[in-house]
Design a protein that fits this description.
The protein has about 200 residues and is α+β, with helices and mostly antiparallel strands. It contains five helices and six strands. About 30% of the residues lie in helices and about 20% in strands. Strands 1-4-5-6-2-3 form a six-stranded antiparallel sheet, with helices on both faces.
Length: about 200
């Protein structure tokens, strides 16, 4: 991992966290209450043990990093996802500005929880309050702005993303949603995909 020096950005991560906090304050200060949504970008050298139930997947991802850079999607095997219950997705950023992401893969476990298959659809559609009002309610637009802000930080600092959402404000059987974001590349040295794993309780 030491060969991938461009990945580590530990000194800048604290700045990123402060920016995210300011973003939340600014959003809430706009006159709307944003239900709990926390996101943090960790340095790549953070121990897998720090990610709880996602430890295994962080470990697998780290072991696939080479001198060439982040793991490629074709470095993965079906066996790498044993135990995740199909609760994972692979999304590709549509441009270098991270204006949106398109789902290349949407696991069957996510389809069960979200009641929709997002394969080939754009991430922004998940937060469109006109289409999916029952998922994020009237907060969809605010969530989407925050998600984009978090994704920009993930790619800017080339770290490991970890998010937690409390959906207790809507009528769902599950209220605690946690997800892990791992950067993946295709052919270039720099990452352009995000592998996300989820847990619902």
């Amino acid at each position: 991992m030491g060969a991938c020096s461009y990945i580590s950005a530990a000194p800048r991560l604290k700045v990123a966290r402060r920016k995210i906090l300011k973003m939340l304050i600014k959003t809430i200060g706009g006159g709307s209450e944003l239900p709990c949504f926390r996101y943090r970008v960790f340095d790549i050298n953070t121990s897998p043990d720090s990610f709880g139930s996602f430890r295994k997947y962080v470990d697998i991802w780290k072991n696939k990093i080479t001198i060439s850079g982040f793991p490629k999607w074709n470095d993965y095997d079906v066996s790498d996802f044993i135990g995740c219950k199909g609760q994972y997705s692979l999304s590709k950023r549509v441009d270098c500005q991270n204006s949106d992401f398109k789902y290349v893969l949407w696991g069957h476990g996510l389809t069960w929880y979200y009641k929709m298959d997002m394969t080939t659809h754009f991430m922004s559609e998940l937060y469109d309050k006109n289409k999916n009002h029952m998922i994020y309610g009237c907060y969809g637009d605010l969530y989407w702005k925050y998600v984009l802000f978090c994704m920009n930080n993930l790619f800017s600092y080339n770290g490991i993303g970890y998010g937690k959402m409390d959906l207790g404000f809507i009528d769902r059987k599950y209220t605690d949603v946690r997800h892990l974001d791992l950067l993946i590349r295709k052919n270039s040295q720099m990452p352009n995909h995000v592998l996300s794993l989820f847990s619902f309780t």
